[in-house]
Structures are given as structure tokens and as C-alpha cells.
Amino acid sequence: MSLTVDDTRWVAHLARLQLADAELATMTRQLGAILDYVTQLQQARTDNVEPLAHPLPIHNVFRDDSPAPSLSVDAALANAPQRRDNFFAVPAVLD
Question: pTM above 0.85?
């Protein structure tokens, strides 16, 4: 696909980019190469290809969520600098 400098200038305007003339020439070549590659990809035959959500087989890597014994309240609060009943005591952060 042939891309003109005016096309690139318009795309830059839409992207809110200010490009110098040298940058416009470079971007015109690069955008043209990208569009040529997209055109090449569109020619690939995908008639018998099933749509995929992911190209590789994936599986759950997390362990089973099973209950396990935890610390008692006294053991959990044993090293607390201050304690109020069964909770950590901290200075107020809101008025």
C-alpha cells in the first residue's frame, strides 16, 4: 500500500503528534512497511483454522484451595506493640 506524506501527516494529527519534515519522511516509510506487512498477513489462508483465545494450551497452575490450620489470636498478636482485645492497636489515621 502506498502511503503519502499527507496521509502520515493526518495520522500524526489524529495522534496529536507534531513531526518535523524528516520525521514525516521516516514515519511514512515505516507506516508503509507496517501496512505492507498487514496486507501480507491478510493473504494467509485461514479458512480451516479454528478461532483461538490463546495460541498455546494453558492450564491452571494454582494449588487447590484447601483449609489449613492457622495461628491462634494470641499467637498472632504475641509481638504486637499494642493490643486492644483481639486486635492490633494503632494510632487513629482519620479525624
Answer: no
List, for residues 55-74, the tens digit of each pLDDT value.
888 888 888 889 999 999 99
Domains delineated in the chain: 5-42 (1.10.20)
What residues form DSSP beta bridges with 83? 88
With beta carbons less than 8 A apart as the criterion, state whether 9 and 24 touch. Answer: yes
Query: Which residues make Cβ contacts (< 8 Å) with residue 36, sequence separation at least 6?
Result: 1
pLDDT tens readout for residues 8-33: 999 999 999 999 999 999 999 999 99
Neighbours of 43 (CB within 10 A): 6
Where do runs of H (alpha helix) occur along the chain?
5-14, 21-42, 73-76
Specify the 3-state DSSP secondary structure of 60. coil
